[in-house]
Amino acid sequence: MSATIHRLNSREPSLEPMLTLVAPGMNAVNAVILDRMQSDIPLIPELAGHLIAGGGKRMRPMLTLASAELLGYSGTRHHKLAASVEFIHTATLLHDDVVDSSDLRRGRRTANIIWGNPASVLVGDFLFSRSFELMVEDGSLKVLKILSGASATIAEGEVNQLTAVRRLDLSESRYLDIIDAKTATLFAAACKIAAVVAERGEAEEAALDAYGRNLGIAFQLVDDAIDYVSDASTMGKDAGDDFREGKMTLPVILAYARGTDEERAFWKAAVTGHRNSDDDFAEAIRLVRASRAVDDTLARARHYGQRAIDALGGFASGKAKDAMVEAVEFAVARAF
Description:
Blueprint: H1 16-36, H2 43-52, H3 59-70, H4 77-100, E1 104-105, E2 108-109, H5 111-115, H6 117-138, H7 141-164, H8 172-197, H9 202-226, H10 232-235, H11 241-244, H12 250-258, H13 261-271, H14 278-290, H15 293-311, H16 319-333
Antiparallel strand pairs: 1-2
Helix pairs in contact: 1-3, 1-4, 1-16, 2-6, 3-4, 3-8, 3-16, 4-6, 4-7, 4-8, 6-7, 7-8, 8-9, 9-15, 9-16, 12-14, 12-15, 15-16
């Protein structure tokens, strides 16, 4: 498995090229988002605005715009569709925070903590509905099929993850199935719809799907590693959230598989919820580092990142391709 990743240049990778590339389009997307999250019910824009304005990079709609730039698309259909992608993502975040009983999201209190679980779930439903309105307005059945299918797959991934919580027997294969569904699917769809709007062929659709999917897997692998190497200010969530929730992410799967009998006993107690203090989390960090579980998780992230970059091989060189390559490098480098 590859442990290295192509580097565009020697400086630290950044999202700046992507941000610069898509800035004009993102202004249009943000205008759609602001308009469509409005409602005569004041709680809806208040709660939705709290999350939407919460400092996220809006990676997924940026990928839609960047993919359109890569293909030389000069229309505007992708603006509403990028907003639709962001609404799907935001709705899933609202629901996830309720399921996980999260207190922090991007360093701020979660909506469910401020307004309660019922309001968060219902506003998430509202945003899902808005996303489908935007898809329908576009008029493409193919786009509708891609994004509606992605929405269903994300929900399946979340349910799969829910049934895997506190399961020490979770395999690496099932873990990858979960993150492919709950994270990578929307990355893939966000990129692929640009090829549909630009009226490109199946080869370009497949290439952009592969780019987004592999980037999404790499992104989630890094997120899961960061839980054991970082703090709340870096992660935008409470350090140790995954640990305390009993989530069998790849660092834990690998550390458990490589552990001594004593270490496995610790993991069994921790994953089943019997050892979740700050001291226990410190011990978990020690074990995942000592077993090289974090290193190997990040090596896998670099592997999928390289696959994402390789998927762009057939596209012409230029600012869009360079920005999309560097976005992968940035996603993988976040843990270092």
